[in-house]
Each structure stands twice: as structure tokens, then as C-alpha cells.
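[stage:ingest] chain + small molecule (zinc ion)
[stage:ingest] validated
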Amino acid sequence: MLRQLLVIFGLFLALELAAEAQQPGALPNPLPSSAGTAYVIRAGRLIDPESGTALANQMIAIKDGGILEIGSNVSIPQGAETIDLSLYSVLPGLVDAHNHLALTYKKVPENDIYYYTYIQESTALRAIQAASNGMQMLSSGFTVVRDLGNNGLYADTALRQAIEQGWIPGPTLINSGIIIGGSGGQFYPTPEMYKEHNIIYPEYLDADTPDEIIKAVRQNVLFGAKVIKICVDCKPYAYSVEDMKLFIREAANAGGLKVAGHVQTQEGARRAIEAGIWSIEHDTALTDELHKLMAKKGIWRVGTETPFTEYRGTQERFDHTVQGMKSAWANGVKMAFSTDADYYVPGMNRGQVVINFLKSWKASGIPDKEILKIMTVNGYKVCDIYDTRGPVKPGFPADMIAVKGNPLEDVDALRSVVFVMKDGLIFKRDGVMTPERFLHGGPVNGWRIH
Ligand SMILES: [Zn+2]
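[stage:predict] done
[stage:export] C-alpha cells:
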């Protein structure tokens, strides 16, 4: 017995050392399949959304999943395949800062009531939906998605791990795990549901007291959350400023995570701003005055601004949305492109539903090149990955897309993504998905990846 224990201990020690040996100086975490690949991209136009400028005829050298060099003439990595995008604009990947990849409610059978989706679909099924939705997002040029809950029992973490381990292609995921709220979360359970605590409770974590708040944050971190999502004011017993400060402190303590708050009342927004929350989700309650406070404190506005279409919304709600965007922009609030996409529209995939939110942004009158910056640079920042992933520059993972036309002048150019590269692998080429290289026979980085 003792000998067995010693053997197991020795094994753990070896794994520990191996894991440590891999870390320093490694490329920006290439996928298992990225190793050994090399490409040179010839970009007709290389766009820098940060400065709102473009350079003609640039070359990008890519090796082992990372960007080596960019310029009008670069040294070609050995064995590199040339990708001719000289007729296109090449730019960094897009970001949806609020999506729900493992939730798709629909007309039949649940009449678009997501309460029923939870009851009828297992976490396992929803994880597979999430994998599909992730690929649909990637195909539309979204290389990063912030996934803010309603994913059953951590289908979002499963998706993130599957992507990071190289099982399937998908966007870089910043996932929240289970949404934390006061009793009931966003639901109105019956006493039977509440007491049994099993029917709706894969979807929400109750946290009413300081002890429960700490416990809930730690549970999510334990099960792979990369951001903490809370319901600030879904119930009359909204979180106090002190409650939210505790969330923020505990999330920071648990690996420097940020706190995103679903906010639907002005009082909730006021408290969240005072507490110094990282981001306010949804534009419902935000006023000109609240925007001024948000700008002063540097709080992100993740407005989830739904366009008015034949399948969604009303003119009245849309007018409110556009008014809010104008106010936020005029007040210098940090804005992110976000959708709250969690539904099915016949004839459209998840990526198409999401990119159609451009309608709202165009209606806001924000200049096209600023919208592009919001959809890229601001996205990396609100996801808190700006220093490690997103921008197209040497030393970074090779994530980029190509479109016809120039999105700096007409942001609708983003509707026709012809090329997508993620981690230095080609996911889409000539407008067709080509995911073969992503499908890896066995992950080499599975150990202790959360
Ligand atoms: Zn949402």
C-alpha cells in the first residue's frame, strides 16, 4: 500500500515538473494541431482597428500558431504555405462580449420561453449545441466570445476546455459558469422547485449572504469560470453595494477575475457603479446620468443592443436602444459589442444572428471605424485578454479574419467573412469552413487545464 502511494506520489511529482517545464517562453499556447505549421499571409490591406488605419500589401509570417513577423517583406518560415488574401482586408478577429452558446430556445416546443429549455435539454446536449454555436460564431469572424451563463451545469467550461485542448475549433471563450444571484436568480421557482433545488438550479446559484457569495464565487472558479456573472437586481432583494464589493474582492482574489453584472433597474445600476463593478450587462436601465457616472469610473457598457427586425423587437424598444447608445458614446463610456444571443431564428445561424446587430450600431451614428474598434480592441479589453490575445502583432496567437471591402469605411463589410484563422490554423477559406486541422486525435495539454 505504502509502495503504491509512493508510486502515485512520484507520478504526480513527475507531472508537476513536466507541467512547469512547458510553461516559460512557450508560444502563446498553440493548439496541439498548431505545432509544426507555417504560413505566410499576403494581405491586400492590413487593418489596425486601434488606430483606425490600414497598410497596403502586407505580409504576415505565422509559425506554430503564433505571429512571427509583419511587414511589406518578411522572412518566410521554413515550409510555409502562402495564403493569398491580396484582394481582401485582413484584420483581427471580432468579439461578442455577451453570448450564451449553450442555450438555444426556440418556438417549438417551448414557445421561446427559456424556462422550458432548461427542463427539456440536458447539460450534455447543450454542450454539443455550444460546440456548434461556437463554430457558427467563428465562421462569422468571432474569434472571442464572452459567454455569460445559462449553460446548465458548466457546459460553457466543457466547451472552453474542448477548444483549448484541441478537440474542436471554436472561439476563445471567457466563460462565467453559473450565474450567481439572490434566491431564484432570474427565475420564479415554485416553493417545490426552490426547496428541492434541482429543477432550475443548474442555471442559477443562490447567494444571499456574504458566506454564500464567497462560496458561490469559489464554486464557479473551481468549475472553470473565467469571469463572474451576477444578477444585480433580478429580484426586489437586489444586491447592496457592500455585497457587490464582496463579489469583486472575492473574484479578484480567485485569480484576478472580473465581475459582470446583469442590471435591469436604475437603482441596481447606481449601486453596481458605486461598487466599481467591471461591466454592466444590458442597456435596459442606463440613462444619460448613469452613463456619466460609468464614464467617470471606467465601467464597461455591455449593452446587448438588439436590432429591430422582422424576428425580434419593437420600434419603441429599438428607439430606446439607439438613444442609449448615442448617450453612452457622447459621454465617452467604454462600449463593447454584445448580443445576448440565446435564441434560434429560422434560416440564420448563431453567427448571422450576431453580426446582424450591426444594424443597431449603424443606427447609433457611431463612425464605422469606431464600431470596428469596439468590435475588436474594446472586445479584447472587456474580456481582459488584450495583453495576450486579439491584436494582430508579433508574439501573439495568429487569430485573424479577412473580408471583402474596407470595414473602416463601411462596417457592413464584416458581414462577408471569407477567411478565418484561429491559433494559426485555417478555419475558413474562400468562404468555406475547413476545420479539419482543428480536429485533433488527442489533447496534449489536458492536464489541469481548467
Ligand atoms: Zn444574457
